[in-house]
């Protein structure tokens, strides 16, 4: 198992006392000027003070799950039964539960390539094979459906879709999503849909796979870390869209896992109820700020020699390509060199799988003045290296 996003943190910490580090490796809004809304912090304190400190129901606090039914109905136009919603310790635990159930020795799980590292790590951990379908950079990182068709087979046990995607920030096109769902139907396998960035969108409209599926089951995952700026609360949920009750066995296994780990954070679950009760102005404000930071980041990155970047539609990452020739051995060498020489901490693209090679991931969460400092430094460092070469 490996998690490049935090593995580079260890490298940065080694040099932290020598130089200032710009932490552009972790997608944590609360590290920047996106503070967890005060009223949900107050709700957290209140629920703890009111004695909501017991273990909770393993599947989650029913009132919170009822609000989730309501929220998902608005998105996918269908009522998910309350028993089909499980509160998890972040989407991370949803990924773990889903993979623990669906990824088994001898089978394969189709994953986007490049992909968020835990998907492939858990496939490895459970002795399954994570097979990456190519996201085509030349086509705005949309899945390459021909490659997809070549990789799906009788061993495939589930298809993971992640849109807006981490690390590319791109959303899957509706037509492609439909084709993927049709193929899932043909092979009689479920879709796993990581929807953690569904409210952080700048371009186009987010489409929930379940809203396109008639009978193909979808395990959707979402949470409170990004749009609610509370990543440290470790709270998320998964839902089963299962119109023909074909996921009963999977659901039962996931429920057993949920009981084995007792429950998700109880006071945080009660506080999260508040996020559904009030209009979410703060997420809209966050998206408006991020939109400007995305535009600025794109402009600066694409002005730098050797760097080119596809415009992300959502999330808060950019995944630029870097021309390494004669200066760096590979993308990891590039990222570590930039870190050591400038203090800017990016994540190497190969940490997101083979399709991430020759790229790096950055985040546009920081304010524009910080981004300006970062890209000034990066631009002049690359220029210096280039000048030395000539
Ligand atoms: N899924 C994706 C695509 C992510 O980018 C992240 C965090 O960066 C997670 C899941 C983890 O989410 P959580 O904090 O809810 O565990």
Question: What features would you describe in this structure?
Answer:
Helix content is 43%, strand content 15%. The strands form four sheets. An eight-stranded mixed β-sheet has the order 2-9-8-7-6-3-4-5, sandwiched between helices. The protein has a three-stranded antiparallel β-sheet with strand order 11-15-14. α8 links the parallel β7 and β8. The longest helix has 23 residues. Bound molecules: pyridoxal-5'-phosphate. Pyridoxal-5'-phosphate (PLP) binds next to α4.
How big a fraction of the residues is strand?
A: 15-25%
- Work out the number of β strands: 15
What is the ordering of alpha helices and beta strands?
Answer: HEHHEHEHEEHEHEHEEHHHEEEHEEEH
Q: Radius of gyration from the CA trace?
A: 21 Å
What structural class results from the helix and strand content? Answer: alpha/beta
Helix content: 40-55%
General shape: globular
Bound molecules: pyridoxal-5'-phosphate
Separation of the first and last Cα atoms: 41 Å
Mean pLDDT across the residues is 96
List low-pLDDT spans: none
- Helical segment count: 13
Which strand order spans the largest sheet, edge to edge or round the barrel?
2-9-8-7-6-3-4-5
The major pleated sheet works out as: 8 strands, mixed
Which terms would index this structure?
single chain; 390 residues; alpha/beta; three-stranded antiparallel sheet; 13 helices; binds pyridoxal-5'-phosphate
Summarize the structure.
The chain has 390 residues and is an alpha/beta fold. The protein has 13 helices and 15 strands.
Structural topology:
Elements: H1 4-15, E1 22-23, H2 38-49, H3 62-76, E2 85-88, H4 90-102, E3 108-113, H5 117-125, E4 129-136, E5 142-143, H6 145-151, E6 156-162, H7 174-187, E7 191-194, H8 209-212, E8 218-223, E9 236-241, H9 248-260, H10 266-277, H11 281-303, E10 307-308, E11 317-318, E12 321-322, H12 331-342, E13 344-345, E14 347-348, E15 360-363, H13 368-389
Parallel strand pairs: 1-13, 3-4, 3-6, 6-7, 7-8
Antiparallel strand pairs: 2-9, 4-5, 8-9, 10-12, 11-15, 14-15
Helix pairs in contact: 2-10, 3-10, 4-5, 4-9, 11-13
The structure holds pyridoxal-5'-phosphate.
Pyridoxal-5'-phosphate (PLP) binds next to α4.
């Amino acid at each position: 198992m490996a998690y490049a996003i935090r593995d580079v943190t260890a490298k940065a910490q080694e040099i932290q006392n020598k130089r200032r580090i710009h932490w552009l490796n972790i997608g944590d809004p609360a590290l920047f000027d996106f503070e967890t809304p005060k009223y949900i912090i107050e709700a957290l304190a209140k629920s703890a003070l009111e004695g909501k400190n017991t273990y909770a129901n393993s599947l989650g606090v029913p009132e919170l799950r009822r609000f989730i039914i309501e929220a998902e109905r608005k998105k996918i136009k269908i009522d998910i039964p309350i028993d089909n919603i499980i509160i998890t310790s972040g989407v991370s635990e949803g990924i773990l539960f889903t993979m623990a159930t669906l990824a088994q020795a001898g089978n394969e799980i189709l994953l986007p390539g490049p992909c968020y590292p835990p998907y492939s790590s858990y496939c490895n951990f459970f002795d399954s094979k994570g097979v990456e379908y190519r996201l085509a950079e030349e086509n705005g990182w949309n899945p390459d459906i021909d490659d997809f068709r070549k990789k799906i087979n009788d061993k495939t046990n589930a298809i993971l879709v992640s849109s807006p995607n981490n690390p590319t920030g791109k959303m899957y096109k509706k037509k492609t999503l439909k084709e993927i769902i049709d193929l899932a139907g043909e092979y009689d396998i479920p879709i796993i849909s990581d929807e953690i960035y569904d409210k952080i969108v700048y371009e186009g409209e987010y489409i929930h796979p379940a809203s396109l599926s008639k009978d193909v089951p979808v395990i959707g995952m979402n949470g409170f870390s990004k749009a609610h700026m509370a990543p440290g609360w470790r709270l998320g949920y998964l839902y089963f869209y299962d119109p023909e009750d074909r996921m009963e066995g999977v659901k039962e296994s996931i429920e057993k896992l949920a009981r084995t780990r007792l429950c998700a954070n109880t006071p945080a679950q009660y506080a999260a109820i508040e996020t559904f009760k009030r209009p979410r102005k703060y997420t809209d404000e966050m998206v408006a700020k991020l939109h400007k930071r995305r535009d600025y980041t794109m402009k600066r990155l694409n002005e730098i020699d050797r760097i080119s970047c596809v415009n992300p539609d959502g999330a808060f990452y950019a995944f630029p390509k870097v021309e390494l020739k004669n200066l760096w051995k590979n993308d990891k060498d590039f990222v570590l060199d930039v870190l050591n020489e400038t203090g800017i901490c990016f994540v190497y693209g190969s940490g997101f799988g083979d399709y991430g090679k020759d790229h790096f991931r950055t985040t546009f969460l920081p304010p524009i003045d910080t981004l300006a400092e970062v890209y000034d430094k990066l631009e002049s460092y690359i220029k210096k290296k280039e000048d030395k070469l000539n």
